[in-house]
């Protein structure tokens, strides 16, 4: 059953050009990074990688949800034997794998190196799982991109704040609350190819992202069933 759901999602994603465009964005980011001097890459590459698995994925999964609502594919989940939880899992897995491909393209093209790529792959996958699930849960209530625009901008702004704190631009004890944002643990994975990051920091970052994945799945499960499958407003 899961295999059928995954194949169907891939066919729909390719046919609607969502998945090819998603990968092309990763390539475009890599080409953009080639224009910057090498000394800027340790700062810019992590930001670009976060955009690919996290923020772009958050937007694209919402776009897919809207399209499948209009096609009646999601509404059919309430009257077919297809498990809507399997639908969420399949969508998350596909988007996360696409994010890994995009992140590898950013590294390979933008830095002309794959040194430390294992950190990037791990971080991209975990961050994408979190943001895809959040995207499914939040977008389930909306019906088009215009309504979804405000949540996208809110997530974008909040998710970029940890970079300002990480690089010392936001000082003071109050800003330590930014550690709770899921993009923060992702920073450690994305900067590991460029600077020394302790194993302990990477381990706790993975734990934080796994905890966030659990929270995001709970949000997605509740809201997707209520607003997308049942069609409540």
UniProtKB/TrEMBL annotation:
- Tagged with keyword Transferase: no
* Keyword flag Cell inner membrane: no
- The UniProt transmembrane annotation reads 17-36, 43-67, 87-109, 116-136, 148-165, 177-195, 201-220
Cross-referenced Pfam families:
FLQE3_permease
Q: Which UniProt keywords apply?
A: Membrane, Transmembrane, Transmembrane helix
Q: What is this protein called?
A: ABC transporter permease
Per the UniProt record, the source organism is Thermococcus celer Vu 13 = JCM 8558
